[in-house]
Amino acid sequence: MKYGGRTDVGIKRKNNQDSYAVFSKSGYFCAIVCDGMGGANGGNIASGLAVKTFASCIKRGFSLMNPDDFDEFEIKRLLKSAVNETNYTVYEKSLSSPELEGMGTTLVAVIGCLCGTFAVNIGDSRLYRQLDGILQQVSTDHSFVQYLIDKGDLKPEDAANHPNKNIILRAIGVNEMVEGDYFRIDNYDRLLLCTDGLTNHVNDKRIEKILSGEHTVKPTTLKMRADALISEANDGGGFDNITAVIVGGE
């Protein structure tokens, strides 16, 4: 499985609270993106610790069982176990120091193996799939503005300018327990995992074009497309950290 990823501090922030990892072994691959919160130190620690813990859980799970023997039930069980362990680890760390109190992080992750491709999302970092050039958001934001949209109290086109657009309703490490949304993803050419530093500045139509490589006449790799997404977000203001990870075919 090919991939390209990049994280960037943006042009307004002094430190980067985003973290990501992509890895593959014989029979499976995994991609993880986290966006930390809770002050400069807290956000950095929360996202980095979440990525490290989640990755360790996935690697351990696949080391105990042949990847070819996994089915949908086992993959979802592994994802839930990884979420629970990651949440517990970040939550316990937040209690270790007054400076880290209240820290947390979003998390969006994908696992692919012989039995299919599966994902989990907590917070407002997003997962998109692209098929035949068409972009579709797979995850649903766990945010206050999405709650208002679902209630019919806010139009989707007004969400970007809402004063409370940064309030998220679920996060890793904030409470003792957390619920994630779990998905099976079929029939895709590419997947995009990203933080809101990208989606706050680049609309879906533009993301769609860049993800397809149609933003330029020159051939591009997935890494070059991830770089292009980062550049577009910075050109649009770059008010937040930006992370984009693309998985799939070129």
Structural overview:
There is one protein chain. This protein is an alpha+beta fold and 250 residues long. The chain is 33% helix and 27% strand. The chain has 6 helices and 11 strands. The strands form 2 sheets. Strands 2, 3, 4, 5, 6 and 9 form a 6-stranded antiparallel β-sheet that branches. A 5-stranded antiparallel β-sheet has the order 1-11-10-7-8. A hairpin with a 2-residue loop joins β5 (107-113) and β6 (116-122). The N and C termini lie close together (10 Å). The model has no long low-confidence stretch (mean pLDDT 94).
Give the percentage of residues in beta strands: 25-35%
Oligomer: single chain
What can be said about the biggest beta sheet? 6 strands, antiparallel
First-last Cα distance: 10 Å
Estimated radius of gyration? 17 Å
> What pattern of helices and strands is seen along the backbone?
EEEHHEEEEEHEEHHHE
Mean pLDDT: 94
Backbone structural class: alpha+beta
Q: Count all strands and give the number.
A: 11
What helical percentage do the residues reach? 25-40%
Shape: globular
Uncertain stretches of 5 or more adjacent residues:
none
Number of helices: 6
Short description:
The protein has 250 residues and is α+β, with helices and mostly antiparallel strands. Helix content is 33%, strand content 27%.
Keywords:
250 residues; single chain; globular; 6-stranded antiparallel beta sheet; alpha+beta; 5-stranded antiparallel beta sheet
Show the helix and strand layout.
Elements: E1 2-8, E2 18-25, E3 28-37, H1 39-63, H2 72-94, E4 104-105, E5 107-113, E6 116-122, E7 126-131, E8 134-137, H3 144-151, E9 181-185, E10 190-194, H4 196-199, H5 204-212, H6 222-235, E11 242-248
Antiparallel strand pairs: 1-11, 2-3, 3-4, 3-5, 5-6, 6-9, 7-8, 7-10, 10-11
Helix pairs in contact: 1-2, 5-6
